[in-house]
Amino acid sequence: MGFEGMWRDLAPVGRSASSGGYNRQPWASAESELRAWFAEQCAARGLTVETDGIGNQVAWWGAGDDGVLTGSHLDSVLDGGAYDGPLGVVSALAAIDTLRARGFEPGRPIGVGVFVEEEGSRFGRACLGSRLATGATTWDQAKELRDRDGVFLADAISGAGLDPSRGLVDLSRVGTFVELHVEQGRDLVDRDVAVGLASEIWPHGRWRFDFSGQANHAGTTRMEDRHDPMLTYAMTALAANKQARLAGQRATFGRIAVEPNGTNAVPALVTAWLDARASSDEALAELVDAIGRQATDRAERDGTSLTLTAESVSGSVAFDADLAARLARIGDWPVIPTQAGHDAGILSDAGIPTAMVFVRNPTGVSHSPEEHAEVPDCLAGVEALADVLAELDGTGDSA
């Protein structure tokens, strides 16, 4: 089955009939269906599949060490797009088909991997599967994480029929990792090219702001008598926008929780999560510090209080420049930065030489049902990935 056939298989899984977006949460039904689909596709190609105790999967073509691993993830953000993650998995399988059609025989093993909970949309830790697999996060640190419904990570994994005591996927045989991904911006659109390579990932993270106040009656409490954490949060959201714009960085409050969450009550607690990204580690720290200072100052004026907690922070990732330059020469592809986090960044931080291939997104929109890639560009991505895998395999024959 070729790229288009595999894509049609995946299209209905986890898709919302109302919005057209996808809800493929890790260790839930849609994502479990996709993991089963992946295992079936690998078996049809004669690839040996390893599934670890939390659901990470790796399938190998060929035996031995110092392998070339490609792949991505299958989970999505809430009401996300179709391409973020699955495009890299489907393209990886299609690239192996392409290499076989060329009569290519790998000199070193080529693998296809799927990492769980890349988005961090359920348990709040981006790239959790690859973090656990590389040791960047330990099981003791992760097992007590809870989702929005209060479900512990350990219970969610067990409920999906998995057993963490079986251990994690063995990455010791991985010599190089390449992740193909839909571009989550407009750089390739502006350049009018279908394929590019990554130079770096901006540092980014998630911070929880707990604004505490005093619950009270919405009608009988005078405005000047209130200790309203919603006002403190609102000013903080505006401050984040201003600080990010002034610095040319990124700051987003995309999720809040309110207690008691009543229409006719001044809230007692507003919890808001900040996603911040910047061009350097120093710029990121300065951005978050500036937002935190303004939030604290406003809380003092509002008679509220703020507790600021860093939940998940990833430093800047500079991909192997020599590797990127070597691969760029294959197709004269541009080398561009990305502001989005990826499993590729985690593996790079773990000391594995890593590269990324981007496929043009004509809308420039991601984490949304409007995320898109045209079929001809996807097929160009498959060919590019096949060329990259052949080059990395060491044969020198990428055509």
UniProtKB/TrEMBL annotation:
Zn(2+) 2 binds at D84, E119, H367. Pfam families: Peptidase_M20. Zn(2+) 1 binds at H73, D84, H181. The keyword Isomerase does not apply. Its cofactor is Zn(2+). SUPFAM superfamilies: Bacterial exopeptidase dimerisation domain, Zn-dependent exopeptidases. Binds 2 Zn(2+) ions per subunit. GO terms for molecular function: hydrolase activity, acting on carbon-nitrogen (but not peptide) bonds, in linear amidines; metal ion binding. Keywords: Hydrolase, Metal-binding, Zinc. Belongs to the peptidase M20 family. This is N-carbamoyl-L-amino-acid hydrolase.
